[in-house]
Amino acid sequence: MDSREIILIFGLMLLKIGACLEQICWDVEKAPIGSVEVSISCSSIGEMRASCSSDGDPLLYSWTLNGDPLMDTISSIVLEEGTDGNITCSVKNHVSQGQKTISVKHCPVSSGSVVFVLIWCFQLMVLLGLLGGFHIYTRHVR
């Protein structure tokens, strides 16, 4: 094999690689954003998380609450306690964009939290009863 054949083979390889890259780029350009979905989840400690999802690639996210910007570029955000109103997730890529707005309500207090508070109150009453009994006992013994 002489140098002209090597150069010819190398040139053909570059053309093939260029065609493959062009096809990959063309396929990505054909991927518009699908429907945008927003969900709200509440943890057992009352933390509220908003999550956004859509098809397409690559995706850029932005969030607004009642029209005020919150945070960009991430698909999931934690909302402050007491947050309510309309939250909007906007998604875009180089082909298209989409958005979805949902209403946000306070997270309900979990029954686990109520049980914890009731048990804590009961323990406090028992402790105060024991302290009162001890105080009365020490006054009688003297």
List keywords for this structure.
four-stranded antiparallel sheet; 41% helix; 2 helices; single chain; Immunoglobulin-like; 7 strands; alpha+beta; three-stranded antiparallel sheet; 142 residues; 30% strand
Summarize the structure in short.
With 142 residues, this protein is α+β, with helices and mostly antiparallel strands.
Task: Give a written overview of the molecule.
The protein is of the alpha+beta class. The chain has 3 domains: 1-30; 37-108, Immunoglobulin-like, CATH 2.60.40.10; 109-142. It is 41% helix and 30% strand. The strands form 2 sheets. It has a 4-stranded antiparallel β-sheet, with no helix packed on it. A hairpin with a 4-residue loop joins strand 6 (85-92) and strand 7 (97-104). It is elongated, with a radius of gyration of 31 Å. The termini are far apart. The chain crosses the membrane at residues 114-137. It comes from Anabarilius grahami (Kanglang fish). This is Ig-like domain-containing protein. Residues 1-20 form the signal peptide.
Unreliable spans are none
Estimate nothing, just give the exact number of structural domains: 3
The beta-strand count equals 7
Q: How far apart, in Å, are the first and last alpha carbons? A: 115 Å
Mean pLDDT, as a whole number? 81
Fourth-tier CATH superfamily name of the largest domain: Immunoglobulins
Q: Which CATH class of the largest domain applies here? A: Mainly Beta
State the helicity in percent bands: 40-55%
CATH architecture of the largest domain: Sandwich
* Series of secondary-structure elements, N-terminal to C-terminal: HEEEEEEEH
The rounded Rg comes to 31 Å
Biggest sheet: strands, sense, closure? 4 strands, antiparallel
Content of β-strand = 25-35%
Task: Tell me the number of helical segments per DSSP (H or I, 4 or more residues long).
Answer: 2
Given the C-alpha coordinates, what overall shape results? Answer: elongated
Oligomer: single chain
CATH fold-level topology of the largest domain: Immunoglobulin-like
